[in-house]
Amino acid sequence: MQILNSKIPEGPLAEKWARHKAAIRVVSPANKRKLEIIVVGTGLGGASAAASLAELGYNVKSFCYQDSPRRAHSIAAQGGINAAKNYQNDNDSVFRLFYDTIKGGDYRAREANVYRLAEVSPNIIDQCVAQGVPFAREYGGLLDNRSFGGVLVSRTFYARGQTGQQLLLGAYQALNRQISKGNVKMYPRHEMLDVVVKDGKARGIIARDLTTGEIKRYGAHAVVIATGGYGNVFFLSTLAMGSNGSAAWQCYKKGAMFANPAFVQIHPTCIPVHGSQQSKLTLMSESLRNDGRVWVPKKLEDAQKLREGKIGPNDIPDEDRDFYLERRYPSYGNLVPRDVASRAAKERCDAGYGVNPEGKAVYLDFKYSIERLGKKVIEARYGNLFQMYEKITDVDPYKEPMMIYPAIHYSMGGIWVDYNLMTTIPGLYAIGEANFSDHGANRLGASALMQGLADGYFILPYTIGDYLAGEIMTPKTDVNSPEFEEAEKNVKDRIHQLFNVKGTKTVDHFHKQLGHIMWDYVGMSRNEEGLKKAIEEIKKLKKEFWSDVKIPGELNNLNPELEKAGRLADFFDIGDLMARDALERNESCGGHFREESVTEDGEALRNDEKFANVAVWEFKGENKEPQLHVETLKFENVQLTQRSYK
Amino acid sequence: MADKILKKLYIKVWRQNNAQDKGRFETYEIENVSTGSSFLEMMDLLNNNLIEKGIDPIAFDHDCREGICGICSMFINGRPHGPDTAVTTCQLHMRKFNDGDTITVEPWRAAAFPVIKDLIVNRSAFDTILQAGGFISVNTGGVPDGNAIPISRDDAEEAMDAAACIGCGACVAACKNSSAMLFVAAKVSHLAKLPQGRIEAKARARNMVAKMDELGFGGCTNTGACEAECPKSISISHIARLNREYLVAKFAE
Amino acid sequence: MSKFLTASIGRKFLMSVTGLFLMLFIVVHLTVNLLLIFDDSGDLFNVAANFMATNPAVKIMEPILGLGFMIHIIWSFIISWENYKARPVKYNKQDLSNASSWSSRNMLILGALVLVFLIIHIYDFYWKIKITGSDLLPNVVINGEEMHNTYLLVSTHFKESLVFSLLYVLGGVLLGLHVVHGFWSSFQTLGINNKIWMSRLQWVARVYAILVAVGFSVIPLYFVIKF
Questions:
Q1: Judgement on whether residues B92 and B167 belong to the same structural domain of the protein
Q2: Domain hosting residue B86, numbered range
């Protein structure tokens, strides 16, 4: 058997999904009642999957580390969700959404998966409306759209600046309905610490009850990982404090291969870092770039004065402002994709034009749109974002431009999955941000919500049936089997080992250091030397962590430091693999920028001959070199061109 | 505007090792806090100091740190989410405090929100209430087109006002009766304002209120403290709608 | 309607309905009382008082009013007890001053004080007029009809004792504070409110409360100052 079988169906692109659905197996209602599925994570992917699977009749166990499924970090998505509805009559279509997504991802995603995503996207909007998601509406009562980065049509549906929240609450409501019916058993404040594989198939998980510290076993016929991304490896990111890569990482260590770990997205519009006490970065929605203009001073001396606080941004006349995105990319202007906007900001700041005391910020100015549209319109569109900005920075963005800077935001890489969203471990699925499948090397704005819900509502419920149809004779998983014994023992051993280091430094101390290494060498701009250095430094830091970390509190009680330590322990390994992957991929594509591979005018330069593929990593054992496999990407429906937003 | 340094603060904080523990206040000193830090970043710093001194750090709920997940829940100087309006604890910044202040930090207090540890309380009662009817009974698939039923912009906006609830529990914490009426009203009102949710509106109001009563929340006496302390400024006019839906439902029984 | 009267909103419904009824009664009561200061001969007030005492419709309403009072009072204690239980561990420091009005938080206390006043008030007048009689209650004949000279009883009380008068001023103010929250709150509880009407109802509540407080205070003050 071929190691990586993507199972992409034959036939024309537009018919692949329909043909596949017709070909795969279906489980009868009577048999669904006998089957159990574990879903880990309750974000858009996890909650929608758990609810939809339970509606179908499966017995679902749902896990989240937060106190309620509603807290999952999908809640923080602001701007919107894309769908190829063409309600605006602006010549949008499934193909155009597909094309934009493939191009936006810099041709590093699978055509078939992306097309399917675009194909089901309209259903998502219908579903959410039926659930009571209060999308923004026109005066005539129909749904409103806004435009987003990297595209030329308006296809983004939104609910003020809280679209992620509203979509998640919709999925959470559906989940609650199934919980009340007894079809889903919910385990909040439970963290998955290992996946249990028996006879080569995923059969359950080991989880820690975060309130009591108890380690427990849970069995099922299939396990779905919907645990989001691993961006917190950078310490400072737009992710929630608890977001982590550990569930995915345990799957990797049990044999699920990991794809494109180097592909992380740096979001251009975040509130800049200030001081050393900062714990996280706050995102300002990409939608702001619809009406805000990005600029830095044209003159170096103005930038200098701004940094010293001698003048304010409003003291600089229009002719002395460099609207560098509009200058460099006239056709897309301020709405270039995220990776492009982020690099452009870094380029200006590195050249000395940064505007905050640290020299790492650019302006996002609403003066012009307020003049054009009036304050009321801007307030209606972005009121809550402006309020958030003011609360954090104490600056009123109606009067003074926002300061923004790029920050780590999203992981395009993730667990490798086939067309069925199944990992290389049979019975183990990965959906949403946790998998690698749809965004290539860069994700377009408002597409994460689309993918999470597409996977959970409309793809996994079909494809999982194909696997489970072969499991209808399998009895309920016995959690007393040796495989569970061993997995539980390993988990306990590791926790004890961590707890018993009894060193001198806090978990955050190590996490911050790891963050610095990652940001400096595996961040927005990467090179061979730096990446090699990163691998060495991570190794050293990891060793130090395992011999000097100090975890207070008790094992059998709520212990946030212990939770953090376990997650950080995995972040070292994730960081290592990211650096290896970035080193291996000697081209610039999407969010991955190698200084060795640029065009003459400094834009990212892909190498399609060598790297039009998915880099898939296989775990070979603790402290052993992982093995790289390659899934070649076939492009039959789009022409690979150098991405240009000029 | 420019950040300053608060040289010394005294944090008087509730310590309780577990649900059975009686609990007590402890006062800790903390030095050199930037006014640009969020309250939770100050707590991080304090915890860091405590760990270094060998003291168990203060357990508190926090996650997104951008005011939307609703998990953070501290009662600071007598007010849920502290001395600022329309913010969560993670959005509260230290510029709201002065050098030398003693800041009292307590968990949410309500019979329905038992303390788990220190400042962490169990808010699963909120989930339980929503499970009693805070949804629209549609399955995935087979739904009409998103534009099939036009919804007036005003209705959609008002539904959104209510749907903005983050389920943090500040309303319960602020209310002198520990009432969850604003939380329940937000969901009932959000769904009742939309044609899709209208169909089950009455049963929803009836079932959710019954569950709320069962779980030991107090009743509403219209003091309005919930609205004033709600980080999303959800209006008590939604409570009026809940009352209306509930009464009509009950009188029709 | 199962368990309606024990459900949180059901209990509040009773408070609201009885409250509105009592506020209506207050309007009638105040209207009659104000006649005290518009005719110093007392005839006008005596005729009105006699009408209220003898009219069959009013007589029917009397026990209903009593029942309204009973329910409003008893349920207020039940509700307060239930609400008290909802927070077994109190806050060490709680600051509601920014979040809600003083009177809205202290309806039970205000109500209890009004109740104390009410008992005194009933003893002073209702009890004497209906049960024990008083030296200050000779019969008078107005327009050929014989009736109590209630005016004499009331006016003498106010004229003779400053403390007594001030007690009644206090009663009026307490009642005003009680209804300034109670008025709009009743509508809110019945669901007769929305974003637009919220401020309108609260405005009407203020006007009503001021009328009640000023109206009831003016009467004793009139007698104290004029006589």
A1: no
A2: 5-106
In the predicted structure, residue A80 carries a pLDDT above the cut 70 = yes
CB pairs under 8 A between A and B: 226
**What is the rounded CA–CA span in Å between residue B121 and residue B178?**
14
Asked if B74 has any chain C CB less than 8 Å from its own CB, the reply is no
Q: Do the bridges between strand A627-632 and strand A613-618 make them parallel or antiparallel, or are there none, so unpaired? A: antiparallel
Examine the pLDDT at A381 and tell me if it is beyond 90: no
With bands split at pLDDT 50, 70 and 90, how would you rate the model's confidence at A2?
A: low
* Residue from B49, B129, B147 whose CB has the most chain A CBs within 10 Å, to mutate: B147
Are the Cβ atoms of C192 and B240 closer than 8 angstroms?
Answer: yes
Is the domain of B82 the same as that of B128?
A: no
Number of domains forming the structure of chain B: 2
Same-domain status, B242 and B130: yes
**Subunit contact B209:C101, Cβ cutoff 8 A:** no
Residues of A known to be catalytic:
338
Mutate to test the interface with B, among A44, A55, A65, A75 (most CBs of B within 10 A): A75
Residue B197 lies in a domain: yes
Question: What's the pLDDT score for residue C137?
Answer: 84
Which among A139, A458, A508 is the nearest to B153, CB-wise? A139
Nearest CA distance, A130 vs chain B (angstrom): 6
Between CA B19 and CA A444 the distance in angstroms is 46
What DSSP line would sit under A157-198, residue for residue?
E-STT-HHHHHHHHHHHHHHHHHHTTSEEEETTEEEEEEEEE
Contact: B68, A165; criterion CB under 8 Å: yes
CB-CB contact of A127 with A157 (8 Å): no
The pLDDT of C139-164, averaged and rounded, is 91
Nearest-angstrom CA–CA distance, C165 and A377: 59
Kindly state the tokens that stand for C222. Answer: 């009139």
CA distance A150 to A152: 7
**Among the listed ranges A55-69, A327-341, A498-512, B236-250, which one has the minimum average pLDDT value?**
A327-341
**Number of residues that make up chain B:** 253
pLDDT of amino acid A1: 44
Q: Are residues B134 and B230 in the same domain?
A: yes
The whole-angstrom distance between B232's CA and the closest CA on chain A is: 9
User: Does chain A touch chain B (at least 3 C-beta pairs within 8 Å)?
Assistant: yes
CA distances, A477 to each of A191, A222, A223, A471, B236 (Å) = 20, 10, 12, 11, 49
List chains adjacent to chain C, taking adjacency as at least 3 C-beta pairs closer than 8 Å.
Answer: B
Q: What is the mean pLDDT of residues B174-200?
A: 98
CB within 8 Å: A387 and B86: yes
Chains C and B touch (3+ CB pairs under 8 A): yes
Domain boundaries, chain C: 4-84+104-226
| Residue A638 exposed, middle or buried by CB count within 10 Å (0-12, 13-18, 19+) | middle
Mean pLDDT score of chain A: 95
Contact between chains at B222 and C90 (C-beta distance less than 8 A): no
Residues B203 and B141 in one domain: yes
Q: Is the pLDDT of residue B1 over 70?
A: no
CATH number at residue B52: 3.10.20.30
> What CATH number is given for C4-84+104-226 in this structure?
1.20.1300.10
CB-CB contact of A476 with A457 (8 Å):
no
- Indicate yes or no: CB of C99 within 8 angstroms of CB of B209: no
Task: Report if residue B21 sits inside a domain.
Answer: yes
Chain-chain contact of C88 with B241 (C-beta, under 8 angstroms): no
Once rounded to an integer, what is the mean pLDDT over residues A96-112? Answer: 96
pLDDT (tens digit, 9 = 90+) per residue, B131-145?
Answer: 999 999 999 999 999
* In a shared domain, residues B231 and B141: yes
Q: Which residues of B touch C198 (CB under 8 A)?
A: 235-237, 240
Does B117 reside within a domain? no
- Same domain for B152 and B190, yes or no, is yes
Residues B166, B57 share a domain: no
Asked whether the predicted pLDDT for residue A105 surpasses 60, the reply is yes
* Structural domains of chain A, with CATH: 267-408 (3.90.700.10), 482-613 (1.20.58.100)
pLDDT in tens, A259-268: 999 999 999 9
Which of C12, C83, C100 lies closest to B224 in CB terms?
A: C100
Dist CA A396 CA A370 (whole Å): 13
Residue B118 covered by a domain:
no
